[in-house]
Every structure is written in C-alpha cells, then in structure tokens.
Write a structure and sequence with these properties.
The protein is mainly alpha-helical and about 475 residues long. It contains 20 helices and 13 strands. The strands form 6 sheets. A 3-stranded antiparallel beta sheet has the order 5-6-9. The longest helix is centred in the C-terminal third of the chain and has 22 residues. The chain binds one RNA strand of 75 nucleotides through β8, α6, β9, α7 and β13.
RNA sequence: GACCCUAUCGUCCAGCGGUUAGGACACCGCCCUUUCACGGCAGUAACCGGGGUUCGAAUCCCCGUAGGGUCGCCA
C-alpha cells in the first residue's frame, strides 16, 4: 500500500499539467505535495450524520497531515438552495468543531469568505464551468446533443486507485454500454454535478478526495474527466457508509440521521465526534475514548475499513456519558443550563450558587443532558411531582417514620450533608430499622422519584426550608 | 438487468498463514453503595456456505449466497 502510494505521488508529479487549461496555481500545487482536502455538501436543509463523518475524516486527515481543509458549497440546485439550508451545514460543522481553512464565512453566497481559490459557492463559479465546457468542446472531447453538452466517455474499463478500497476497475454497465457519454451541461446551460465536482476539485487543487462509498462507481466518470483536462486525478479514499441498526440505508426520516438530532438531544459534540471516528476506523490499540489531539495524531486513510457500519445509538450514549463524566464543572454547568432551559426549566429564577451546587450533584451521573430535567428538575420547582412508585411506597407506616425523621431534622444544629446523614442513621437506629427504610420516603418526599442525586447532598442544597416544606406537604397529602 | 464494493460475537472494532479468536457497547450474575449511576470481578455470544492453495487458513484464490452502492438534463 505504501509503495504504490509513493509511486502514485511520483506519477502525480510526472503527469504535471501540460495544456493551456492549467494555470499556475494548479502547476504549483503538483510540485508541492501539501494536502488539500474538501468537504462539499449540498445545502438540502439538513446535514446527514454520514456527511458529518465525511467532513470529520477530511478534517482529521488535513489536520493530521498539516494540510488544508476546504469547505465548498455545492448549491447548483437553485430549487433546494437557501441560506437557511447553508446555515444548517455551517452550524453543524461549527458545533463539531470542524473549522475550515478555506470557504465561506457566512451562508450568503455573495458574502465574505476566506481562501484564494474561491469562490467557494458553485453558484458563483458559472464562468469557470462555461470556460471548461468550451475547452472540451473545442478539442472534441465533448459535443452538443439535443441542446445539452455531453462528454465523450471512454468505453474502456477505468482504473480507480483508492487508498481505502484498493485498485478498482470499473467496467461499463449494460445501460452505459449503449451510450457511455453523459451530460455535463444541461439544455438550460447549467452544469451537472459530475462536471462541476471535477472542475472545482481541479481548480481548487484538491489532492485527496475523501467521500462516501456511494460515489465509488461514479469515480470512473471523474477520472475520465480529469484526464480530458490533461491532469492526473487526485487520490481517492472512499469511506464506507453508515447504516441504521437494522442494516438499512439511513435516510432523512430515520432517528439520528440528521446532525441536529444530536445537537438538540443532549449530546456533547466531542462525544459525537469521537463516536463517529469509531465507525469505520480504529486506533488499533483497543482504546475507544480518545482525546482529539490523539485522534488527529493517529488518524490515517489506509486504516479505514472497507465495509459499512451500523449506527449503535446505545454505544454513543455510553460514550456521551464518558465525556459528561470527564467534562470540567464549568462546561457541564453551562451545557446543563441550556438543556434545562430547552426543557422549560428556568434556572435564572435561582441564585447562581444554588444552581451550581445543584448541578454538582448531577455530575458524572448522566449519559445525556436531556436526562437532566427528569433527574434534577426537583431542584427548580415548588411542586414536586410524585411518580406512581413514590406514592405507593408512602404507606401509613412509612409516613409515620418520615414524621419522626422530620422532627429530628427540625432540631438539627445545621443542615449540612454530614449532619443530616448522622441524624438519619441515629433515627433509623432508634426506630430499629435499616437506613434505607428512612432514605426512601424522604427521597420521595423531596424529589418525587426513587432515584437521583446523593440524598444528603440534595437535602443540604435544597435547604432546611424547602425540605421541611416538602416533607410537610407529603405528610399532609 | 449490468457494473462496483463488502462479509469475525446482537452492534462497533482487533486479527493481516500457526491465538484457549481479543477489546468495547448491550445483556446476565456477584461485589461496592443512602437511591441511581460509576467502578471492580465473572459470564453468555462470532470467523456466511462450498471448493481450492498450504504441513497448517478467520487470514490467500475461486464460486455461491447475503448486504450495500451505482448506472439521471439529482447532488
């Protein structure tokens, strides 16, 4: 694999551009081997999780190689294109932390961008495409037919050298056998995907095309186009697809198909990013929770698997829990407040110190931020909702013991966790029961639930007034 | 229909000619514990089928089967 990679690099140089279509920038590129990769999504209104992983692999490779990561918006389909749709992509990439070195800065195609190989919106590159079409026409490599421009496709099998899949020889299908040529410019003058994709990769000096395996078969067309322009195609790396748990294709409607699902459902971006890496790639040393710098250091194309992977939501949740546990208190606090606000829990109504103390008791206990409202909602409400189990557990006998505990707490010198624990245990001993017999009723009274944060700590944070009030309300009910 | 890719526990990965086929998630049991988590220990569970090559195949080759992808004036 390494050997042919090096050979391919040499070939690339040997086949340096030799016709007038290739300007100085392209020539310059082939002489310095700095890696340039791109993520080229179409603004359809959502960012597919598989697309997010494609972006991630491109980004990781660029960072690993010290190369350039380019974002190019393939907005040739005017009907589906909108700034809102572009923003979904920009927001998604930013959420994951995938910063691009070249590309748009805003969703506005006419707006500012960075990089000197633009424009980075295809809708702004019409002249480039027109010139390229003209060049092919003038050399007889394309021709007009029924108002459209068609490219003269080779009838010979095309060799695609892929860093992931290996050498692939693509023969024509029976349908292509009848008419191998394909349209590169429609009768309305707009260029077609295969064409603009190649033109842009060529003009932007893309060295490695890392994309989904669904493009593998079409790569023959791209290779033929590159050759028609007189240059060697870039290196290809077709990565396997992400499927649903049942092995079916992940389409828009499927749960978790869109990146926004994770943004809105309590996931930490670093956990999603880490999990995505593990689909079709591994560090080989058995580690799975891997810090980003090490991900970058270890990532490479040849280790990418060749078969599709099914998305395991359970494992992602586990990994999310791992990241929540390792998170700094400040970040946990910030993300928690957002998650609570999204669920309609307004923490602003409470003192900051109280909110922080309350959230401290939740650290390390959750897998998703969306679990937080149910887990810690009792801190931020005046009315505790008793669930069915809680009600059933509050038998007359339990109420009687709760009353005893209430009286003991009423006389507590202070309301610190350690004190409360001592008092509860002493009370249990005096009643001749196990600690748990008292623990459960008071937890129910104060939180309404059978499980939650450490009892003594949550009591301390709620404070004497709230605790007494909740016990009394429970006893009165 | 044709072309292309793929095939190890339920899932994600390790394995790259000789291993008691390893790890993670999930699941089950036990321990820890104020609940729930976490953590610790143990367990169930896999090389798609058939032919070759080889002293020896999960690993290499062929066929079959299955899954996925592609053959647009969609991207």
């Amino acid at each position: 694999m390494c050997i042919w990679r090096r050979l391919a690099s040499v070939c690339h140089v040997l086949h340096a551009p030799r016709n007038d279509l290739n300007d100085a920038r392209t020539t310059n590129l082939t002489s310095n081997m700095s890696v340039r990769v791109r993520f080229a999504p179409s603004p359809t209104g959502y960012l597919h999780i598989g697309g997010a992983r494609t972006a991630l692999f491109n980004w990781l490779y660029a960072r690993h190689m010290g190369g350039t990561f380019i974002l190019r918006v393939e907005d040739t389909d005017a009907a589906r294109n909108s700034q809102e749709a572009v923003n979904v992509i920009l927001d998604g990439l930013r959420w994951l932390g995938l910063d691009w070195d070249e590309g748009p800065l805003t969703a506005d195609a006419t707006g500012p961008g960075k990089g000197d190989r633009g424009p980075y919106f295809q809708s702004r590159r019409k002249e480039n495409y027109a010139l390229r079409v003209e060049a092919l026409l003038s050399r007889g490599l394309a021709y007009e037919s029924e108002g459209a421009v068609r490219f003269r496709m080779t009838r010979e099998p095309v060799l695609v050298r892929d860093l992931v899949v290996g050498d692939v020889t693509r023969a024509l299908t029976d349908r292509e056998e009848q008419d191998p040529d394909f349209v590169i410019m429609r009768s309305d003058g707009s260029p077609v995907f295969h064409f603009v994709n190649v033109v842009d990769d060529l003009e932007m000096g893309i060295t490695h095309v890392i994309r989904g395996e669904d493009h593998l078969s079409n790569t023959a067309k791209h290779v033929a186009l590159f050759k028609a322009f007189g240059v060697e195609p870039p290196q290809y790396a077709h990565i396997p697809l992400i499927l649903n748990a049942d092995g079916s294709k992940m389409s828009k409607r499927d749960t978790g198909a869109a990146l926004t699902y994770y943004m809105e459902n309590g996931y930490a971006p670093e956990a999603v990013l880490n999990y995505l890496c593990l689909l079709g790639w591994s560090a080989r040393d058995g580690r799975e929770v891997i810090p980003l710098p090490e991900l970058i250091a270890n990532f490479d194309l040849p280790q990418i698997l060749r078969h599709n992977a099914r998305f395991d939501h359970e494992k992602l949740k586990w990994m999310n829990g791992e990241y929540l546990r390792a998170m700094t208190a400040d970040r946990f606090y910030e993300m928690s407040v957002h998650a609570l606000a999204r669920a309609g829990v307004d923490t602003n109504a409470f003192p900051t110190a109280y909110v922080k103390a309350a959230l401290d008791t939740c650290m390390g206990k959750l897998r998703l931020f969306t679990d937080l409202p149910a887990y810690a909602g009792f801190y931020f409400t005046d009315r505790v909702e008793m669930d069915a189990d809680a009600k059933a557990a509050l038998t007359p006998e339990a109420r009687d013991r709760l009353k005893k505990l209430r009286d003991a707490y009423a006389g507590a010198a202070d309301f610190k966790a350690a004190t409360l624990e001592t008092i509860l245990k002493d009370t249990a001993k005096a009643l001749g029961v196990k600690n748990g017999v008292l623990v459960h009723p008071i937890r129910f009274a104060c939180t309404g639930k059978p499980s939650g944060p450490s009892l003594y700590h949550l009591l301390e944070i709620l404070g004497r007034d709230r605790v007494m009030q909740r016990i009394d309300a429970t006893l009165a009910a």
